[in-house]
């Protein structure tokens, strides 16, 4: 990943709050900043030119829910390899979850991650733990982690199960102006589920996790957010009733936001049967029904669901190549996010381009109180170059993650992230 501070991107269509994607321009970048936007700009000495004819450019995309596994699980992923996968997927920024070893429960771990990500083309924003050691017993040092660079708090991988602790967490975090991102799961209702509880799990003879296990916890957290005035962010929403709960809470003025993973608006629990118990279709929340998938798309379209994320969760091959009930939950998703989004939301006509980009650019950063990049002269260049109509097949060679646990190998994608520019680096995918 080499530094390319001076670059001229030719014949590209900007899409942002101030550009509608209808007009081709040239964008000159010098020393990491947008120096000039115009037409028919001439290439200068010591300047690399890139012809982007037919492509769009937007402010850099952000995935607010990834697992980079470092520290502690570097055999699955590292900060560097996770950022490599993010760059391939068109993401210039990610927020990483704290279920590492040690967990991100203190300022020194936050600063370790920030230090390790320095110099990479993808900005990494650590999410600190809600509770010490993620044990759900006592509050972690939130203000200190915020000072070190944490952007939110979560015990993701497990819910904040203790209601009193969740109340205190919302009160503390509201004083800091930060959200609590909760993994919404009533453990007594959900486990030992290995997939969605329904007709398919019954046919397959697998213990299932019912949708109500998610919905009960979301209802609790909405009530606690209303009571405390705090900000609850619902992680990886997956059921139709859950979307309805968030929709009603927003209408009531409660500070709740949510995200959906690309696989939850694309795949259903029937894939597990069709794919003969392929463990790359095992994740948590599990794949749900077609009704739930349709509800995710509707929630995105009407604004109930704020952000698109991946829950990128790498696992080593030997961990996934076991019987279905013994395999860990989680799939990688950074490399396939845009191709799935293009196929499901854009090509289908369910959403317009700018509406989709809001879920990848503006909303994740607004939720995490981060600055939104701009396409204007004088701004730092934080950009994603992409197309919306290229049809391609996702193959093993496209996986940049250290782990290979994707359900999408061999699948058709629509739309491709072509390159990113961030931190003075131009990373082209081909």
Automatic annotation (TrEMBL):
Taxonomy, superkingdom: Bacteria
Required cofactor(s): Zn(2+)
Signal sequence segment: none
Free-text remark on how the cofactor is bound: Binds 2 Zn(2+) ions per subunit.
Pfam family, one: DHOase
Residue sites binding Zn(2+) 1 per the record: 65, 67, 156, 311
Name of the protein this chain belongs to: Dihydroorotase
Encoding gene, per UniProt annotation: pyrC
């Amino acid at each position: 990943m080499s530094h390319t501070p001076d670059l001229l991107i030719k014949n590209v269509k900007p899409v942002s709050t101030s550009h509608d994607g209808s007009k081709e321009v040239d964008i000159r970048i010098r020393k990491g900043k947008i120096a000039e936007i115009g037409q028919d700009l001439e290439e200068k000495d010591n300047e690399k030119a890139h012809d982007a004819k037919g492509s769009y450019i937007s402010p850099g995309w952000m995935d607010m829910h990834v697992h980079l596994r470092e520290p502690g699980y570097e055999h699955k992923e590292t900060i560097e390899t996770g950022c490599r996968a993010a760059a391939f997927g068109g993401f210039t920024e990610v927020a990483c979850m704290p279920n590492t070893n040690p967990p991100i429960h203190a300022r020194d771990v936050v600063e370790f991650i920030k230090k390790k990500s320095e110099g990479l083309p993808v900005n990494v924003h650590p999410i600190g733990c809600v509770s010490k050691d993620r044990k759900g017993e006592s509050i972690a040092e939130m203000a200190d982690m915020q000072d070190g660079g944490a952007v939110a708090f979560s015990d993701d991988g497990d819910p904040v199960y203790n209601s009193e602790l969740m109340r205190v967490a919302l009160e503390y975090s509201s004083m800091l102006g930060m959200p609590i991102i909760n993994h919404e799961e009533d453990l007594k209702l959900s486990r030992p589920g290995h997939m969605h509880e329904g007709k398919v799990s019954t046919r397959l003879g697998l213990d299932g996790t019912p949708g109500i296990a998610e919905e009960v916890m979301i209802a609790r957290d909405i009530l606690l957010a209303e009571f405390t005035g705090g900000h609850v962010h619902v992680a990886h929403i997956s059921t139709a009733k859950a979307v309805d709960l968030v929709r009603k809470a927003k209408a009531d003025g409660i500070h709740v936001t949510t995200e959906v993973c690309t696989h939850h608006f694309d795949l259903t629990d029937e894939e597990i049967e069709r794919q003969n118990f392929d463990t790359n279709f095992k994740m948590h929340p599990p794949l749900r029904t077609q009704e739930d998938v349709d509800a995710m798309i509707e929630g995105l379209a009407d604004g109930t669901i704020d952000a698109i994320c991946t829950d990128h969760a790498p696992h080593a091959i030997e961990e996934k190549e076991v019987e279905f009930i013994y395999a860990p939950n989680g799939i990688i998703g950074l490399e396939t996010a845009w191709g799935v989004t293009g196929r499901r939301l854009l090509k289908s006509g369910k959403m317009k381009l700018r509406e989709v980009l809001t879920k990848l650019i503006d909303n994740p950063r607004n939720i995490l109180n981060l600055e939104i990049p701009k396409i204007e002269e004088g701004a730092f260049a934080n950009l994603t170059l992409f197309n919306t109509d290229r049809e391609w097949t996702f193959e093993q060679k496209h996986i940049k993650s250290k782990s290979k646990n994707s359900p999408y190998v061999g699948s058709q994608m629509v739309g491709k992230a072509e390159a990113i520019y961030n931190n003075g680096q131009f990373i082209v995918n081909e």
